[in-house]
Design brief:
Elements lengths: L10 E4 L12 H11 L6 H17 L8 H15 L8 H27 L3 E6 L5 H7 L8 E4 H4 L6 H10 L7 E5 L2 H10 L3 E5 L14 E3 L5 H5 L24 E2 L1
Parallel strand pairs: 1-2, 1-4, 2-3, 4-5, 5-6
Antiparallel strand pairs: 3-7
């Protein structure tokens, strides 16, 4: 199936964590799965509380903006281990390795679809992150496929604040009506993008119920399914596969190649 230029959005924005690195599995769930695979026993609620605290602590690290993906995961795992005393039986290095390996595998699988989509639309990332989402994307082999990156720690606004979306759209020179947002969080990704007039695509496992009052334009269970939703031919690639250079982000506007 080939894409119609009249039907395709001019720009497609993606969330990062849970979207580009996992099929609708939030970061807390990714870490929790790895933790339990290595013998973790805390109940899910307690683990989730510790993870949220580790998120805040990670964002406050003076050097976090310089960390790539593996180093970011390692740093957060170290914070989690300190927040969950009495878990000395858990191999925390193995937990970090599981999280990192899973993300690398999904990102590698997703690269061809992003290449195909990039042949038809400009691509951006809109993420609540710690100032280093570009470095993380670089390690995962995806950075060269994006034309703009709006990292909340760099821009100064966080989802669901519509200004983070507007910042990315301005950088892509695309009005909301000609753009789509793809993400795994119905409240941080789908709802605010829809309120701006964007088309939306919710990435979530099929068994996950849709929350009340949040109706995406499309729903997919795996990111590669986006090509079929948009009618994009997966055989068409948007770059030569060799990658392109991507400079560091600036605070305003977000990174644009």
């Amino acid at each position: 199936m080939s894409a119609s230029t009249d039907d395709l959005p001019h720009a497609v924005l993606f969330d990062f964590g849970g979207t580009l690195d996992a099929d609708g599995l939030p970061s807390v769930a990714q870490f929790d799965l790895a933790y339990r695979a290595e013998g973790g026993t805390r109940d899910p609620g307690a683990f989730a509380d510790a993870f949220r605290t580790s998120d805040w602590q990670l964002a406050s690290l003076a050097h976090v903006a310089g960390l790539a993906f593996t180093a970011t995961v390692d740093a957060q795992i170290a914070l989690l281990a300190a927040l969950l005393p009495g878990e000395s039986h858990v191999d925390w290095r193995a937990v970090a390795a599981r999280v990192t390996a899973a993300a690398h595998a999904v990102a590698a699988r997703n690269r061809p679809l992003l290449q195909s989509l990039h042949a038809h639309a400009r691509l951006g990332v809109v993420s609540n992150f710690t100032g280093n989402v570009d470095r993380c994307l670089d390690e995962l082999g995806l950075l060269d496929l994006f034309d703009a990156i709006a990292d909340s720690a760099v821009v100064g606004h966080a989802k669901p604040d519509p200004e983070l979306f507007r910042t990315a759209l301005r950088a892509l020179d695309t009005p909301p009506a000609n753009a789509m947002m793809v993400g795994d969080n119905p409240f941080a990704d789908v709802r605010p993008a829809a309120a701006l007039g964007m088309r939306t695509c919710w990435l979530a496992p099929l068994q996950r119920p849709a929350p009340d009052g949040c109706t995406p334009t499309h729903r997919i269970a795996r990111l590669p399914d986006l090509l079929a939703v948009l009618g994009v031919d997966p055989r068409v690639r948007g770059d030569d596969g060799r990658g392109r250079s991507h400079p560091r982000a600036s605070a305003n506007p977000p990174l644009v190649r």
